């Protein structure tokens, strides 16, 4: 184990968007056992600190690889693109228009004759759009060209908008119950 | 993080929230978004024959600073010529609202939005 390795290497998994979640969970359990603090109790302070550092890296890696959005962002980051922290980027105006309309529908959902149904329908739409973007990302990140990489980044930026939208839907659903 | 009084004022009493007919040739629409936070902003201007902005409307889904930045811009650009409005800088917005460094990107978004609205209007006019 080495925290200079990226999360995929650390977990001994292929560096790809497609990931076997069961295999990831198994590897996580194995690595957790290897790093268990009890096994380091008899060691020096420095070695115990290192074990804590490894555990933190392990947990961060697990959270990142498990989430479809975080995993996509991470794959881009490994290729030098940080979509999570960039302050501005060109976004397709048509996509923004759709986002605006969806946001308006989410905002008005509590006044809808059937708020639960409307929110469920919105949730479904967002999930569908998210699945399409994930499929697009999976195709593009496997291609070696710069154009494909740009397309992959563009898909992730859109996912970030949808992620915000789905959290907004969740927030409203919580409020309704 | 504490918001400045001006941000809170615009957030609680946003000016000029609304929508204009995007198909109207005297209306320019700017749509921008910040992928990092998922904010979306629509800013629209209605321009008179003399090239002066008669009215402005916005709708922003985002944090208080993003709402305040776009609200402030709609207030400022009314009565401006297109060139004057195109010269607006995000730093003026950030200064007026006393935005902290982590919220500067909200003022950038508002500047991008007014520029996009002006560009859309000019494109429609064919000039």
Share in β-strands of chain B: 15-25%
Low-confidence segments of chain B: none
Q: Return the CATH class of the largest domain in chain A.
A: Mainly Alpha
CATH topology of the largest domain in chain A: Monooxygenase
**At CATH's second level, what is the architecture of the largest domain in chain A?**
Up-down Bundle
Total strand segments of chain B: 3
Q: Which geometry of chain B do the CA atoms define?
A: globular
Distance between the termini of chain B: 44 Å
Number of extended strands of chain A: 0
Q: What is the 3D form of chain A? A: globular
Profile the largest sheet of chain B. 3 strands, antiparallel
Output the radius of gyration of chain A.
20 Å
Number of helices of chain A: 7
Report on this structure:
- The complex is a heterodimer of chains A (177) and B (127).
- With 177 residues, chain A is an all-alpha fold.
- Chain A has two domains: 60 residues, Helix Hairpins; 84 residues, Up-down Bundle (Monooxygenase), CATH 1.20.1280.
- Helix content of chain A is 71%, strand content 0%.
- Chain A is built from seven helices and no strands.
- In chain A, helix 2 packs antiparallel against helix 3 and helix 3 packs across helix 4.
- The radius of gyration of chain A is 20 Å and the shape is globular.
- Chain A starts with 6 loop residues before the first helix and ends with a helix.
- The relative contact order of chain A is 0.11.
- The model of chain A has no long low-confidence stretch (mean pLDDT 91).
- By secondary structure, chain B is α+β, with helices and mostly antiparallel strands.
- In chain B, 45% of the residues lie in helices and 20% in strands.
- Chain B contains five helices and three strands, in the order H-E-E-E-H-H-H-H.
- A three-stranded antiparallel β-sheet of chain B has the order 1-2-3.
- In chain B, a hairpin with a 4-residue loop joins strand 1 and strand 2.
- In chain B, helix 1 packs across helix 2, helix 2 crosses helix 5 and helix 4 packs across helix 5.
- The radius of gyration of chain B is 14 Å and the shape is globular.
- The relative contact order of chain B is 0.22.
- The model of chain B has no long low-confidence stretch (mean pLDDT 93).
- Chains A and B meet through helix 5 and helix 7 of A and strand 1, strand 2 and helix 5 of B.
């Amino acid at each position: 184990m080495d925290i200079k390795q990226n999360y995929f290497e650390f977990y001994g998994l292929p560096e790809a968007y497609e990931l076997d979640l069961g295999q990831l969970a198994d590897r996580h359990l194995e690595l957790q056992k290897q790093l268990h603090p009890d096994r380091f109790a008899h060691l020096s302070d420095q070695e115990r600190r290192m074990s804590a550092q490894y555990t933190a890296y392990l947990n961060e890696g697990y959270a990142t690889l498990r989430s479809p959005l975080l995993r996509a962002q991470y794959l881009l980051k490994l290729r030098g693109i940080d979509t999570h922290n960039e302050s501005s980027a060109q976004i397709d105006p048509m996509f923004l228009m759709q986002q605006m309309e969806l946001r308006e529908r989410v905002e008005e959902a509590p006044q809808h004759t059937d708020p639960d149904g409307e929110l469920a329908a919105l949730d479904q739409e967002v999930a569908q759009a998210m699945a399409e973007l994930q499929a697009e990302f999976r195709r593009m990140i496997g291609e070696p060209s710069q154009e494909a990489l740009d397309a992959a980044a563009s898909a992730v930026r859109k996912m970030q908008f949808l992620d915000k939208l789905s959290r907004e839907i969740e927030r409203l659903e919580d409020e309704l119950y | 993080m504490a918001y400045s009084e001006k941000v809170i004022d615009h957030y609680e009493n946003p000016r000029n929230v609304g929508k204009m007919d995007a198909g109207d040739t005297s209306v320019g629409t700017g749509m921008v978004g910040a992928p990092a936070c998922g904010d979306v902003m629509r800013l629209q201007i209605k321009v008179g024959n003399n090239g002066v902005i008669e009215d402005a409307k916005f709708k922003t889904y985002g944090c208080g600073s993003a709402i305040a930045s776009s609200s402030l811009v709609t207030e400022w650009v009314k009565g401006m010529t297109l060139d004057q409005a195109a010269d607006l800088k995000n730093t003026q917005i950030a200064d007026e609202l006393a935005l902290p460094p982590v919220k500067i990107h909200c003022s950038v978004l508002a500047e991008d939005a007014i520029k996009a609205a002006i560009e859309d209007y000019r494109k429609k006019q064919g000039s």
